[in-house]
Amino acid sequence: MRVFYLFTLFILSEGTISAQNVSYTELIEPLFLDFTLDEILQNNTKGWPIVEPWASEYVNSILEGRYGDAVWASYNIGGDVNSDTGIVEGTNLTVLESIEEDALGYRTNDPDNYAEALSFYTQTGNTDGHTDIVDMLIRIGQQDVVEAKMELDKRKTWGIRCSPYDLAYKSSCLNILERMSTAKTYVGGIRRLGAYG
User: Fold this and answer.
1) Residue 192 DSSP SS3
2) Are 105 and 70 found together in one domain?
3) Which of 50, 64, 54, 74 is closest to 20 using CA atoms?
4) Which residues are registered as beta bridge partners of 88?
5) Phi/psi of residue 88, each to 5°?
6) I need a surface site. Which of 13, 131, 149, 164 has the fewest CB within 10 A?
7) For 60-71, what is each residue's pLDDT tens digit?
8) Within a domain: residue 138?
9) Domain-embedded: residue 193
């Protein structure tokens, strides 16, 4: 990781990557990009695992203005996507389906912040390899909130993602997943467990 950090500093000092308007210490977009550049470069993610090549891809994508690629890297950065199936560990969703479900949830439960995020993603560069993600976010943003909620509610998905700030062991999270009810109960924009095994 330190070699990557030094390499990134070298590239920035050479002016190859224009990063003048990018904050290293603040989230540039808080809905889909969960880490600051500093957190990734310093490997200081408060217990949340990050793996290569996704950590480098996350940083480079943000610096180069490839925001669809940055979202894709963000959802792969923990190393919990099965390379054979593309399914995110602990869920029955592919990465793209997981991004879509999160987008529907944000559109339904936090439409103002979702609209603000859309204004950010529409600025993605023309070298972005995941414009499909940006297009999907825009499509969901154009949906009526009621329509987005209906689409979200008809999905039969499950999953669990431990908060990196609670420092729970992954095995504890998976243990809860095995015992959790399939019924959804909403508290704000967050589903909670309805019953324990």
Assistant:
1) strand
2) yes
3) 64
4) 81
5) -75, 130
6) 13
7) 999 999 999 999
8) yes
9) no
Work out whether the CA dihedral 163, 167, 170, 171 comes out positive or negative: negative
Say which residues have a Cβ less than 8 Å from residue 35's Cβ, sequence separation at least 6: 27, 45, 48, 50, 58, 74, 77
- Return the number of other C-beta atoms located less than 10 Å from residue 75's C-beta: 23
Q: Which residue in the block uniquely carries the two structure tokens 């976010």?
A: 137
Distance, CA of 141 to chain centre: 17
Encoding tokens for residue 152?
Answer: 């979200």
Q: Are residues 57 and 114 in the same domain?
A: yes
Tokens of 79: 């190393």
Within a domain: 13: no
Q: Specify whether 81 is located in the same domain as 122.
A: yes
- pLDDT averaged per 10 residues, the chain (length 197): 45 41 91 94 89 96 97 95 88 90 90 94 95 96 86 64 54 61 45 40
Partnered with residue 187 across adjacent β-strands are 190
Query: Do residue 39 and residue 96 come from a single domain?
Result: yes
Q: What per-residue confidence (pLDDT) applies to 154?
A: 77
Instruction: Locate 40 and state its tokens.
Output: 């990734």
Do 67 and 102 lie in one domain? The reply is yes
Range of the domain at 166: 159-187
Cβ pair 43, 8 in contact under 8 A: no
CA distance 39 to 134: 24
Angle at 62 between CA 78 and CA 133, to 5 degrees: 70
If you count them, how many residues does the chain have?
A: 197
